[in-house]
Design goal:
Order of helices and strands: EEEHEHEHEHHHEEEEHEHHEHH
Strand content: 15-25%
Largest sheet: 8 strands, mixed
CATH topology: Rossmann fold
CATH class: Alpha Beta
CATH architecture: 3-Layer(aba) Sandwich
Distance between the termini: 37 Å
């Protein structure tokens, strides 16, 4: 299924030494490059309006990342590297395009890739914009601002906890609202702040339907655990790559040079990445939706915002700089829900 692009957005199929994928472009080829990394169960399509609204001096670039959209389905994610495969794909794309340095923007899972890029190649980044990013410690199974795991095997994170009905409906190409776990219903409930509905909702849903589904993709594999909720991360696919087990040593972030300035933008009503996220096992257990919850002392809701803030505070204390800005009355994708407010913050940061 091919998703049409907006006028002014050019889609190209690009092959690097690592992956073949679709890459979207806007603006002059000689413009200052701004690279956009999309979130989980989405694709580069989500960035088109932002790319078209860039300053005239900028070149917008947005790839479909490994495991999503029109990326080569034969290119799988080695979860034991955390976001390493996606970060290396990004660097290979920059090399292919002959770009030494870029402004980089990551939303949700894309923000998780940016954490890895900061640690691996900060000299390639002019500025960093994190939009509702995943916690630097990964998703699920940690209990404090330091990213301490609830269990030694990181149970409560990884592929075994992804909603199977949601995945089934993605595979079935479900476009409706009859099932509360349909892609359209989930996006309306968890990604945007109700009652907002995007003008290009059909295209955004189509992007979700292009998610690669399977034991090596999403959700990936899992391991039985003796610890609640009795699933620990496997070794393949995006959900496992997002596990704190494979997040890497965040201490590396504080020693990098240079330290590009970081802008952290989030929506006031984000249910996907917050201190009691809707899909967080600890939050689901506290709400009685996952039976057998061992209690808040053992497995509290993951403090995702507190973790990100603690890491960025230390980043600043070790010579970096960051700013946190909350866009009111928006959810997980403020650049879709209120593009004008987003650009009032984003464009000065690029300058």
């Amino acid at each position: 299924m091919s998703i049409p692009t907006l006028p002014g957005v050019v889609a190209r199929t690009i092959t690097t030494p690592r992956i073949t994928t679709r890459v979207l472009f806007t603006g002059p080829e000689t413009g200052t490059p701004v690279l956009f990394l999309h979130g989980n169960v989405t694709s580069a399509t989500w960035w088109e309006e932002v790319m078209l609204s860039l300053p005239d001096t900028c070149r917008g670039i947005a790839p479909d990342q490994r495991g999503f959209g029109a990326a080569d389905p034969a290119s799988k994610i080695d979860a034991t590297r955390g976001m390493g495969d996606l970060a290396d794909d990004t660097l290979a794309l920059l090399d292919h395009l002959g770009l030494e340095r870029v402004h980089i923007v990551g939303n949700s899972m894309g923000g998780s890739v940016v954490w890895r890029l900061l640690m691996a190649a900060s000299e390639r980044l002019l500025t960093v914009t994190l939009v509702s990013p995943g916690s630097p410690y990964g998703f699920g199974g940690t209990k404090d601002a330091r990213g301490t795991p609830c269990w030694e095997d990181f149970a409560g994170s990884g592929g075994g906890l992804t909603n199977p009905e949601f995945l089934r409906l993605i595979e079935a190409g479900d476009l409706g609202l009859d099932n509360p776990f349909s892609p359209r219903a989930v996006l309306r409930m968890l990604v945007y702040k109700p009652p907002f509905i995007p003008a290009r909702e059909d295209d955004l849903v189509a992007a979700t339907l292009q998610t690669h589904i399977g034991p090596e993709d999403l959700p990936g594999d899992s391991i039985e655990s003796p610890h609640w909720p009795f699933k620990a991360p496997g070794r393949r696919g995006m959900a496992n790559a997002a596990s704190p087990k494979y997040a890497g040593d965040i201490e590396r972030l504080y020693g990098i040079e240079p330290k590009p300035p970081v802008l952290w933008i989030r929506g006031s009503h984000d249910l996907a990445v917050c201190d009691a996220a809707a899909s967080c096992p600890g939050a689901l257990g506290a709400a009685g939706q996952l039976p057998g919850w061992p209690g808040a002392e053992v497995f509290p809701p993951q403090p995702m915002l507190g973790q990100t803030r603690a890491v960025l505070d230390r980043y600043q204390a070790t010579g970096g700089a960051y700013e946190e800005i909350v866009i009111q009355d928006t959810g997980h994708a403020p650049f879709i829900e209120n593009l004008l407010a987003f650009n009032r913050i984003f464009h000065p940061h690029l300058a």
